[in-house]
Amino acid sequence: MPIPRDDMGEAPLTRTPIPLPAHFHQAEQSFSLKKRGRSLCYTLPPRPPVKSIPPISRIFPNRQRSWSQPRPQSVSFRTPQTVPPASKLYDQSKGETFFKQCFQSICKLGRGSFGEVYKVRSREDGCLYAVKRSVSPFRGESDRQRKLQEVRKHERVGQHPNCVRFVRAWEEKSLLYLQTELCVGSLQQYSEELAGPLPPQRIWNVTCDLLRGLKHLHDRNLLHLDIKPANVFIAFSGVCKLGDFGLMVELDGSDGSGDAQEGDPRYMAPELLDGVFGKAADVFSLGMTLLEVSCNMELPTGGEGWQLLRQGHLPTEFTSDLPPDFLKVLSAMLDPDHRCRATVDWLLSLPAIQRAERWRKLTLATQWTLGKLLVLYQVRYCQHGNSFLWYFIRF
Question: Polar residues: which segments have biased composition (predicted)?
Fold first, then answer.
């Protein structure tokens, strides 16, 4: 329920403010519309310099590092034996890397503190993919094992239509490469290009897709812990997919929640500051993601606005135009008490979500059928240059 406003028109804090870490920036005290001019690339700040001893190669430049892989080797926790990545195009006698021999690099999609992502075309099957390459070489065996854990997480996620599909991984010359499916872009890019709130039907579609993807993770006792628009990707079919599993935690694995890290403060659940890591934290982050894109709202990173959102207050100046059923879903996902917060299964059982899912399946089936008709049309009539059917499908 919305918190009543005081005489000045502001919603007062009704609980003791949550203590925030020192690295949280104090945001503006009131809620605001989404700021323009943000880069479309989902990049991260540069990594701070490592205060440690220099790499072994700098101390003993002629010594071979046991953890270094000068030749390409597949990385998989399903098949622990070390084998070269499978490809008929790779010629070991050539000086070029596996990446250059087997892929045509089209453009760089983005760069973060730990990796850079390229849009590539496979020379083997002609399909487009995304390849993430680590920015810096392994600094040692422990650093290598830490980076390889991302491969393990992708393999734990497995295949699901609402999770970014992992293809394979390999290491070469102390760099890690991860090949995944290519998506059109992120939900962050889509909302910024739209320059306004997402239409209601699109919001329901995003909600259904991401709830299904999150259910897939939670059914496997996996926590994403970094759900935000920049980590939600849109496939060419229009389906939304969860991606970027770098902070993912396995509740039934050896890591547990001991090494868990909170993600972006704008989307993080309040209980994470108390060290409570559970599935409810993902639901909260998803709720904040939906609040942002449905209202074109700039989420605060700190200050009173950050506190209000974590006390169950949804600013009516932004949410008044939302459908009532969707507003109820948001309120259930953003419950301040993680013990009372809605679960993914409960949300999927709501009549409003089930109606939206039925419509979603119908529209996806219609788009698939029209896509097949478009292919047949192009094969038969493309020499005439008539693109009426393509225009019809898009609009």
Answer: 63-81
pLDDT, tens digit, 9 for 90 and up, residues 64-73: 454 556 788 9
User: What is the distance between the alpha carbons of residues 88 and 366, in angstroms, rounded to a whole number?
Assistant: 38
Catalytic residue IDs: 226
**To which CATH superfamily is domain 65-181 assigned?**
Phosphorylase Kinase; domain 1 (3.30.200.20)
What confidence tier does 255 reach under pLDDT thresholds 50, 70, 90?
A: low
Is 52 a residue whose pLDDT tops 80? no
- pLDDT tens-digit series, residues 152-162: 999 999 999 99
Q: In degrees, to the nearest 5, what angle opens at C-alpha 16 toward C-alphas 342 and 324?
A: 35
Asked whether residue 132 is marked as a ligand-binding residue, the answer is: yes
The 3-class SS string of 328-381 reads HHHHHHCCCCCCCCCCHHHHHCCHHHHHHHHHHHHHHHHHHHHHHHHHHHHHHH
Q: Nearest 10 degrees: CA dihedral of 27, 28, 29, 34? A: -100
The rounded distance, in Å, linking the Cα atoms of 274 and 280 is 14
CB 71 within 8 A of CB 148: no
Cβ density class 356-378: b for 16+ within 10 Å, e for less: bbeebeeebeeeeeeeeeeeebe
